[in-house]
Amino acid sequence: MQYATITGWGKCVPPATLTNHDLATFIDTSDEWIKPRTGISQRHISHVDTSALASVAAKRALAAAGLEGSDIDLIILATASPDTLIPNIASTVQAEIGAQCGAFDINAACSGFLYGLGLASSQIKSGQCQRVLVIGAERLSFYLDWSRRETAVLFGDGAGAVVVEATDQPGGVLGYELNNDPEGRDILKAGFGTAMDRFNSASLDFYIEFNGQEIFKRAIAGMGKLSTKVLEKCNVDKDEIDLVIPHQANERIIDTLISRMKLPKEKAMVNIANYGNTSAATIPIAICDALEQGRIVPNQTILSCAFGAGLTSAAVLFKWGDRVTPINSCDAELPPCDKTGIELVAPAVKHFCG
């Protein structure tokens, strides 16, 4: 029997940041208002396309696994903010890393990376693939109306990637659960797509909008339900969990989720302060940060869960392997950025805020 284990990991966040204090210069907010409500102190703003973030993260993940792009059998790229809808941007990453394989994008919003990780494990366990590259990448600043405080303070840009490999050693992805609640699909949305009237310039005024109270309630219920389900499916007691890596949407959501699961807060990986909500990228970025901080050690049992527009939800239970350090280093970098975060968003701020 083949098992699907994470053997490589990499993240890429753009260098420019937008702090809570920066936001306060053009909308009615403050660090004192944002931080207690969300846990966020800053977010990164990209000067490049989503595919560029994804490509650097992918190259770093490959190096960590000691692999080349040509070793990969499948690329799954989770994003709700691709450079282009046609072609998919997984093909752009494929060209950048020199892979010869299947490649596709999936849009499950903030749950996208876990959807991809679950699908990757199934491809490996079925024998269809030996090595799958799973990426979560977003440039959500593209969707923001900077005059709307409820969304302007939440989102950021970034990418993370993992390599999932077939192994004979028991462990890796133990199980996963995916779900969608279509009744709530309109409480978190951005009106971009073929439903737009392309001949009406007003249709270009699209932006992320959501019902915060409903999202809070449904996020906790959705992640909690699937987390419980995957633990039962794998016959693992919650006390056997060494680390929880939840989607980083709001620190209050994470705190409430962990409390309801009756787990100690120190078992939760929380890094939202530095990045904000990067949707499909939050979990792979958090995996990289947990490794850098020594939070992940060999043979740990890790639960990861997410919730996003759709309303999607996902939970994956996996056992980490023997290695927590990269096999090779990687010199892949983004093109230099000569602007600050506030300079990068200035044109959009002028458009939305006047």
Q: Can you tell me about this structure?
A:
- This protein is of the alpha/beta class and 354 residues long.
- Helices cover 32% and strands 23% of the residues.
- The chain contains 11 helices and 13 strands.
- A 5-stranded mixed sheet has the order 1-7-6-4-5, sandwiched between helices.
- Strand 4, helix 4 (90-97) and strand 5 (102-106) form a beta-alpha-beta unit.
- Helix 7 packs across helix 8.
- 50% of the residues are buried.
Give the arrangement of secondary structure elements.
Elements: E1 3-12, E2 17-19, H1 20-23, H2 31-38, E3 42-44, H3 50-65, E4 74-78, H4 90-97, E5 102-106, H5 112-125, E6 131-139, H6 149-152, E7 157-167, E8 172-180, E9 188-190, E10 208-210, H7 212-233, E11 243-246, H8 251-260, H9 272-275, H10 282-292, E12 301-308, E13 312-319, H11 341-353
